[in-house]
Design brief:
By secondary structure, the chain is mainly beta. It contains no helices and 30 strands. A hairpin with a 5-residue loop joins strand 22 and strand 23.
Length: 361
């Protein structure tokens, strides 16, 4: 990877419209030096972000229960000026469901999906050329509940992830019903149909889901049981559940919930964030079986790491600590996979999402 080039990083935060809620950073890929280049208000609670592959559009949810008197939140797509890298006026779309908390694009960038945590649904939008979202075309609704009366009283879709093997399937981890619900885009091109589900243990509370770079396995972080579950993914639309491993050290006795999960770009390690233990749990993948092997824990240097991201070259990890208003920077040890604190904390109020443009600027 070319030295002394900069990664473009976007931060989303919990904030009202009158405060800064989206921040752009640049990170020197060789030295770890960083700079804030722009800050934006006007968007309420952009709690999850996504970028298209070209880095020309930033997508965000506006996590709220209603919008201008209409039930549900918003999804906003911001074009990014090619030269200045500043956000332009956005295209706004209603989600028609409350509490949108996750947004993603399919590999061919034909569809965009939003998971609505409090609306028990997923909203799908067709994407036009240039990344502009059309009107909401499909709303997938869940039903059921789980054993935890406080957190699983109804369905709570917490993310929606497209199949990397073509994008025709959509996987929706639902914290409220302990399932990853699987949908297929049928031949008409506009209809999405439920075709099954991967079932978790009662009370696991599945949250976020990440595929291995080869697309043949996947990893689920369970928010309520503080664990990671490995799946085989032998073909598109198929998930075969394997082992589940705790994200916590055996001696820890406090309260904890998990938040984010990521796989290293080289496919050798899996990372998950603990809120309570306030750490990144690291797992090594067995070279022969692919099984998860606990490899250690690293403090995130703050409280409540709701989100983190790894640069595409695997060299840097940024952990967003929601309740201490800081983003901690780590250099990743290539041999052990462990993040090593780089001595840098970036101030940011209530940061809850980190997204990195895969193209070096």
């Amino acid at each position: 990877m070319t030295a002394n080039r900069k990664w473009e990083i976007w931060i989303g935060a919990y904030a009202p419209p009158e405060e800064v809620s989206i921040t752009r950073l640049e990170l020197d890929g060789e030295t770890g030096e960083w700079a804030k280049t722009s800050e934006y208000g006007g968007t309420s609670n952009p709690s999850f972000l996504a970028l298209n592959r070209a880095g020309t559009v930033l997508y965000t949810v506006s996590e709220s229960e209603e919008t201008e008197g209409q039930p549900g939140g918003r999804m906003i797509a911001y074009p990014i000026d090619e030269e200045s890298r500043k956000l332009q006026d956005g295209w706004e779309r209603l989600t028609h469901s409350a509490g949108p908390c996750h947004v993603s694009l399919d590999p061919d960038e034909r569809w965009l999906a939003v998971a609505n945590y409090n609306g028990s649904s997923v909203t799908l939008y067709p994407l036009e050329a240039g990344g502009k979202p059309g009107d909401a075309m499909v709303r997938l609704r869940h039903s059921g509940s789980g054993p935890n009366p406080e957190r699983q009283e109804k369905p709570h879709p917490h993310s929606a992830v497209f199949d990397p093997l073509g994008g025709r399937f959509l996987y929706v981890p639902d914290l409220g019903i302990d399932r990853i619900v699987v949908y297929e885009n049928v031949e008409s091109g506009t209809d999405w149909t439920g075709v099954g589900a991967a079932v978790l243990s009662p009370g696991d509370g599945p949250r976020h889901f990440a595929f291995h770079p080869d697309g043949r396995s996947a990893y689920l972080v369970n928010e309520l049981s503080s664990s990671v579950t490995r799946f085989l993914h032998p073909e598109a639309g198929v998930l075969e559940r394997q082992e589940t491993v705790s994200t916590l050290p055996g001696h820890f006795q406090g309260g904890n919930t998990c938040a984010e999960i990521a796989v290293s770009p080289d496919g050798r390690f899996v990372y998950a964030s603990n809120r309570g233990h306030d750490s990144i749990a690291v797992f090594r993948l067995d070279e022969e079986s692919g099984a998860l092997q606990p490899a250690g824990h690293v403090s995130t240097r703050g409280r409540t790491p709701r989100n983190f991201a790894i640069t595409p070259d695997g060299r840097w990890l940024l952990a967003a600590n929601q309740d201490t208003d800081n983003i901690a920077l780590f250099r990743v040890d290539a041999a052990t996979g462990l993040p090593i604190y780089a001595g840098t904390e970036i101030p940011a109020r209530k940061p809850v999402c980190v997204r990195i443009n895969p193209g070096l600027r």
